[in-house]
Specification:
Shape of chain B: elongated
Strand order of the largest sheet of chain A: 1-2
Main location (chain B): mitochondrion
Keywords (chain B): Mitochondrion, Ribonucleoprotein, Ribosomal protein
Distance between the termini of chain B: 46 Å
Number of strands of chain A: 6
Radius of gyration of chain B: 28 Å
Pfam families (chain B): Ribosomal_L4
Number of strands of chain B: 9
Shape of chain A: extended
Structural class of chain B: alpha/beta
Protein name (chain B): Large ribosomal subunit protein uL4m
Helix content of chain B: 25-40%
Number of helices of chain B: 10
Helix content of chain A: 25-40%
Order of helices and strands of chain A: HHHEHHEEHEHHHHHEEH
Largest interface: A-B, 27 and 33 residues
Distance between the termini of chain A: 62 Å
GO molecular function, one term (chain B): structural constituent of ribosome
Oligomer: heterodimer
């Protein structure tokens, strides 16, 4: 057994404690500087002032509005816009996920491979934080580590390039790129919190104009692309990169690998319109035909 | 020899669980019959926790004692304690924070002062604004006046409630357990079964073993065996506690802390679970350790 002693600091501390008096409530105290003994300022002589000096408009808290430059056009009004941030509210940023990190998460059992991997599963590892409110779209797979990626998974991310797609498919896996609008993404990354709100699972919105081409392209394995064309592209990519495309029907995880979400679906196994009650462990489904039609469209 | 120890390991837990209901029978006697070796052979509990197995640090060893002094051996066996629970750096400042928190969170301040509007009187302007040579005043109960209201004084029923961060509370427990263990104030006992229910018997036992005047017995289950319950009923400084009641203040208040084997295993499992769970970043644990 390879065992080393605990770090020398801990060893030293514990052996010191053996010779010191018993640790008790009367023995303890805070670290020096932990408690800030602030003295309240009183009058003009005692203690510190309250930051306003003495006398004059400052002490009477007569301040001009923030940004006011005593009459001339202030800086914040001089420039009504700047070109460098044009369209910033439309552009999405994605959390990078290297293939090497993905492989490590799978190897260390941090990421489950017995279910299809999507945003929800990746967020469940606890290693990432996505804030849809800050215009973050989800995950994008990076090239780092594609050479030693060995896992066979069914993964759904928001952005992937050709080399990454090739490395996933070479091992018999499947990759899909899917768009999540901000509301759907908020639900997908924290499902338990979302179910706690007690609202019906919404329909996932279609991508905006500048992204619809990307997700309709079979080369990017877009979720809106024709499955037949995607299969053709898989074959072509295998030829391009020079690997043999493994037969999915022969693999034991065939069902997991072939599972795909509907374009309007956020969670696997749950349809839009359903209300999930985790407390009573019940799913409520709409019965009104109008509602059913709306959610099924 | 190896498979005899394995046999002990297999037999010991199941027998222990089956005898849990019958608190008065000393368990080790029956255990001696089941094991093929001689009854005086010590039992070595080498089981490491399922959660944090691959630890580079060396596990701490502690004797397993028995509360029945009639047997030939005082020490029934040896247990390995996880270093991340029982041999961490003893953060005395975190222990202090925990103690302060335990005392303060339930505090409600009842001290109260009246505001200028609450002090009786003071509605009328004492003298006209101008004409008298005196300073201008609007009310005889303004804070400037003697007998006037207090401006930022204490207001009754102000709670001192706050929650110490989860990581600090975990660290408080591990630091206290480590400090107690380092100072030989942590004892492991196989179970709380005693042959007699007299208070004098227990006091003599504690004195013989140099267990401090105050002793805290911690067990897995909150229904304790009858004998020890009766014995400690009249003694105020020897207390029984289930594992879920374990806290820093109680451990420091009592000179000696005595854990049963199952209690120590339960504590280890729970603390290691919290130290290793993947969403630790949400509960300030990492921040606390980087301090």
């Amino acid at each position: 057994q390879d065992e080393v002693m605990t770090s020398s600091g801990t060893e030293k501390a514990l052996s010191l404690l053996r010779r010191l008096p018993r640790v008790s409530i009367g023995n303890l105290g805070p670290n020096p500087g932990a408690h800030n003994e602030k003295r309240r300022g009183r009058g003009i002589y005692g203690g510190k002032t309250h930051g306003a000096g003495s006398g004059g408009s400052g002490q009477r808290q007569n301040f001009m509005r923030v940004g006011y430059e005593t009459g001339n056009t202030p800086f914040y009004l001089r420039f009504s816009y700047q070109t460098y941030y044009k369209g910033h509210h439309l552009k999405l940023s994605y959390t990078p996920l290297c293939m090497g990190k993905l492989q490590m998460m799978i190897d260390t059992n941090r990421l489950r491979c017995d279910v299809p991997v999507d945003v929800t599963q990746l967020m469940a590892t606890g290693l990432f934080s996505i804030s849809p409110q800050q215009k973050e779209g989800g995950f994008m797979l990076e090239n780092e580590g594609i050479d030693h990626f060995k896992a066979t998974i069914n993964i759904e991310v928001q952005w992937a390039n050709e080399a990454v797609i090739a490395s996933v498919e070479r091992n018999g896996g499947f990759i899909t790129t899917a768009y999540f609008d901000p509301l759907s993404l908020t639900a997908a990354i924290k499902p338990v919190e979302f179910f706690g709100r007690g609202i019906a699972i919404p329909r996932r919105m279609l991508p905006p104009q500048h992204l619809i081409d990307y997700y309709s392209d079979p080369k990017n394995r877009g979720y809106l692309a024709d499955p037949a064309e995607v299969a053709r592209e898989r074959f072509l990519l295998a030829q391009k990169y020079g690997y043999e495309l493994p037969d999915v029907n022969a693999s034991p995880n065939k069902d997991i690998l072939l599972e795909r979400k509907d374009p309007r679906q956020i969670f696997f196994g749950l349809e839009p319109g359903w209300v999930v009650n985790l407390k009573d462990k019940v799913i409520l489904k709409p019965t009104d035909p109008e509602l059913k039609e709306h959610f099924a469209s | 020899e190896h498979h005899c120890i394995m046999a002990q390991r297999l037999f010991y837990p199941t027998l222990r669980n089956s005898l849990r209901c019958f608190g008065t029978t000393p368990g080790w006697q029956t255990e001696a019959v089941a094991v093929p070796q001689a009854p005086s052979a010590p039992l070595i509990l080498n089981e490491t926790s399922e959660i944090d197995k691959n630890v580079a640090e060396v596990a701490r060893e502690a004797w397993i004692e028995t509360l029945d002094p009639s047997g030939e051996n005082l020490h029934v066996g040896l247990i390995h304690l996880h270093p991340k629970v029982f041999a961490t750096y003893p953060r005395l400042d975190i222990i202090h924070e925990n103690v302060v928190w335990q005392q303060k969170y339930r505090m409600v301040n009842t001290s109260h002062t009246k505001l200028r509007s609450e002090v009786r009187g003071g509605g009328r302007k004492p003298w006209p604004q101008k004409g008298t040579g005196r300073a201008r005043h609007g009310s005889i109960r303004s804070p400037l006046w003697k007998g006037g209201g207090v401006v930022h004084g204490p207001r009754a029923f102000t709670t001192q409630f706050y929650m110490l961060s989860f990581g600090k509370r975990i660290m408080g427990l591990t630091s206290t357990l480590s400090a107690k263990f380092a100072q030989d104030d942590l004892k492991i006992v196989e179970n709380l079964d005693m042959p007699s229910d007299e208070a004098g018997f227990l006091e003599k036992l504690c004195e013989d073993r140099c267990w401090g005047p105050s002793v805290l017995f911690v067990d897995d289950c909150d229904l304790m065996p009858r004998n020890i319950t009766v014995a400690t009923d009249t003694i105020n400084h020897i207390n029984l506690m289930p594992v879920y009641g374990l806290n820093v203040y109680s451990m420091l208040k009592h000179n000696t802390v005595v854990l049963t084997v199952s209690a120590s295993q339960c504590i280890e499992e729970r603390i290691l679970h919290h130290l290793n769970k993947p969403d630790y970043h949400l509960i300030n644990c990492a921040k606390c350790y980087n301090k």
